[in-house]
Predict the structure.
Amino acid sequence: MGLIHVEIRLAGFDPWQELAQWSGHAAAASVFVGRVRSTAMDGRPLQALELEHYPGLCERQITRMAVQLQREHAAGAMLVIHRVGRLVPGEPVVLVAVQADRRGAAQRCSAALLEQLKHHAPFWKREWCADQGIWLEENTPL
Amino acid sequence: MGLIHVEIRLAGFDPWQELAQWSGHAAAASVFVGRVRSTAMDGRPLQALELEHYPGLCERQITRMAVQLQREHAAGAMLVIHRVGRLVPGEPVVLVAVQADRRGAAQRCSAALLEQLKHHAPFWKREWCADQGIWLEENTPL
Amino acid sequence: MLQVLLFASLRERAGWSERSLFWSSDYATPRAVWNLLELGSLQGISIAVNQELVDADQPLQAGDELAFLPPFTGG
Amino acid sequence: MLQVLLFASLRERAGWSERSLFWSSDYATPRAVWNLLELGSLQGISIAVNQELVDADQPLQAGDELAFLPPFTGG
């Protein structure tokens, strides 16, 4: 079982640089990077995306989900970095990376962790358009 | 539709550095990195993995599969780098990266391209153990 | 005392993010506290007590940190 | 002339990687050329003519590059 590293960041991050530091030598690594879209849910140009979280519970929930999925998929090292604060279009919001001995395990575990993180970790998004903020009611479809 | 970049490399490469240069700003990017295992298929310690390809046909086959999958999944930019030559355990063999507007499209397209590349692109692996080379008869299971 | 926390859209709706309530047996569960706050339906709201997700009817104790969480939209 | 290429384990089995054959109507398809080479069953072998994957019975023409490819194991 590999290390699980979960981090909530207030500052911007470069996913590839984070991965270069994290990278092990497992046979398979599956990575997802999510960035801020340039348009809001309603199609208007997006000024910024604001992300809030519940500190403490959030990190613990993600770590708990990661531990569970690591066991289920016999995965190795896992890395999650999630931004909070005010982000502009194109900025990375989330990085999920999973190492495993098999490509299928790495891919499935990484995808499952991303879904759990979207639906079971206390993060909230507010879209800013024309200086007005709207809290999102639900996540984007898969 | 984004650019499709397919490259067969004789020299080693750092996947994260390649991604840093490639990286666009799509909402979703799904990445797979495969590395040489430290043990052979029969469990013995692996000295090296030799990779051969059919130049020309190989690049064209991968590009053709990528174009097809990009259309099917409405994906954006795609990157494939595949090593050939003599590799030692831990070295990157393959990098597949797909951008899309949706996480599901990026993940599915990236996984599908990896499978097609494994089964329909003219690459061959030879495992070296105790100074003896054995051509693999089939790929590792998913 | 109970520490009550609201996040995101719930905080905006209520106009506050954190409040201390004197603990009483009248609001001995998250559901009872929620009803007191008059913030609408509990449908879709997650509840955490001392930073653990719990059921709306989990008994509360003095000193607890109770948080009401609108639907999650991270990732 | 036909240019015939073998790769990986097929090359090792045959002891050569590239050969020129005079084109003749006796081996006007990849299958006929394969039979001439006496390298065992064609089962599982892919065939490329002028760098396009084709069927074993695709007609050959003088000047073609014909390659026999063992099962792929890349990625």
User: Anything to note?
Assistant: The longest strand of chain A covers residues 92-100.
